[in-house]
Amino acid sequence: MSKAYMNYIAGEWCDSESGKRFDDINPADHGDVVGSFPQGNVQDVDRAVAAAQEAFDDWRLMPALTRGEIMKRVGDILLARKEELARLQTREMGKVLVETRGDVQEGIDTAYFAFGQASRLTGQTIPSELPNKFNMTTRIPLGVVGIITPWNFPLAIPTWKLFPALTSGNTVVFKPASDTPATATLLVEVLLEAGIPPLAINLVHGPGAETGKAIVDHPHIDAISFTGSSAVGKVINATAGGELKRVSLELGGKNAAIIMDDADLDLALEGVLWGAFGTTGQRCTATSRVIVHEQVYDDFLERLIEATKQLRLGSGLDDGVDLGPVINDAARDRIHQYVQTGSQEGGKLVLGGRFAQGDGLDSGSFYEPTIFTDVLPGMTIHDEEIFGPVLAVMKATSFTEAIELLNATDYGLSSSIYTNDVQAAFRAMRDIHTGITYVNGPTIGAEAHMPFGGVKNTGNGHREGGAAAYEFFSEVKTLYVDYSGTLQRAQIDNR
């Protein structure tokens, strides 16, 4: 019998008011049930928000350095439980162990960054226009924050949100993806073990259409941080924005790597393979397009196809596996529909394009790594985020055309250029319209101390990671101290 997990609301592990439950299934082996989870509803969210409100004053008044020390303990516990958490992640979402270990390490790095950042929640001192008057700013927490996270980085992305939110003095209602609820539960256990007050963190499992919507709609949630699809993000932005809630959206991507004629093709090949097929293509930063200069196009394409053929599919818990499954059968079916549409619209399928079967793959949601050529802007597989192991290879006649092709998308998250020309590299950094640009590196790979996010349909301008996350989760407060002992009137013509 699988383990029965619970919500964590108002300081107690509890079932949902709905009485309903759902199963968490291993995508590499559908016979393996990771656990059953409560299907949260509006009543659960109401209780969670009330608890977070109750905890807010005590938590915000705790010295920031003390909150930071708790984050240091969180990092220490995550480090001690790294392998346990990595194996659980692989079991419930499928990516290979080397990646899930990296996912946990990202959380560890984020915790230690929070420990340091707690002493850098700084404001400014600013000269006054009047004598004997002191001006300064500080940052204050927002209140109760709703955090809604995806399944592809089930520990790292929640830490990007939870750690700066809590360190800044907010309390939290947390809804993780229903495909990876077990990792989220262990993360909350770690937070509690490290010393987060019981009412300050609340965990409500359940579907986005019910539990997530209840969080977004709740009148006493002051801010929303969401990572997921652009379509859902637009709905959240419209709903929460109508109530003037602060909203951070980290949404889709249609990222491209440019391979110039002077590039190190061995390095570029490694980067494209990792960028396109790491996490089985299920990253918002995945390389879904590669734009190759015509002078090296044939050589690079041949190398790419041969190298992709060598990638091994299987359970992420097995040694020697390069690609795990996609998250579930519905995702696999959607990916396959994109592949069929790509062929119908004129793309040339040169590799893959099928469900992966045999060799122990029949009981999981596996899809072959897939490569298209002859892809043009306007095609569905060029324009829409597939979120799977599907790569479109395109040809460019010049640097200028390559930049134009890269920018020919409604998304703007990540980008990459491989070149040994320093002038081309700096022009690319200037002219590529994305939130992230790599030179001689793949489109994937975030660092905890750096801002993460994009432009256009990728988000609404906020950034996760680094100090930028703390700017979202806190509010600037302007302070004046007049020690003149007389009435001094600012904004009056005193000159």
Attribute tags:
495 residues, Aldehyde Dehydrogenase, Chain A, domain 2, five-stranded parallel beta sheet, 2 domains, alpha/beta, Aldehyde Dehydrogenase, Chain A, domain 1
Supply the number of structural domains.
2
Radius of gyration over C-alpha positions, nearest whole angstrom: 24 Å
Number of helices: 15
Helix content: 25-40%
Can you tell me the CATH class of the largest domain?
Alpha Beta
Q: Main β-sheet, in a few words?
A: 7 strands, mixed
Assembly state here?
Answer: single chain
Provide the low-confidence segments as ranges.
none
Task: Give a count of the beta strands, DSSP E runs of length 2 or more.
Answer: 22
- The average pLDDT is 97
Short description:
This protein is α/β, with parallel strands linked by helices.
Give a verbal description of the structure:
- This protein has 495 residues and is α/β, with parallel strands linked by helices.
- The protein has 2 domains: 3-251 and 459-478, Aldehyde Dehydrogenase, Chain A, domain 1, CATH 3.40.605.10; 255-439, Aldehyde Dehydrogenase, Chain A, domain 2 (3-Layer(aba) Sandwich), CATH 3.40.309.10.
- The protein is 39% helix and 21% strand.
- Strands 15-16-17-14-13-19-20 form a 7-stranded mixed β-sheet, sandwiched between helices. Strands 10-9-8-11-12 form a 5-stranded parallel β-sheet, with helices on both faces. It has a 3-stranded mixed β-sheet with strand order 1-5-4, covered by helices on one side.
- Strand 4 (21-25) and strand 5 form a beta hairpin.
- The N and C termini lie far apart (80 Å).
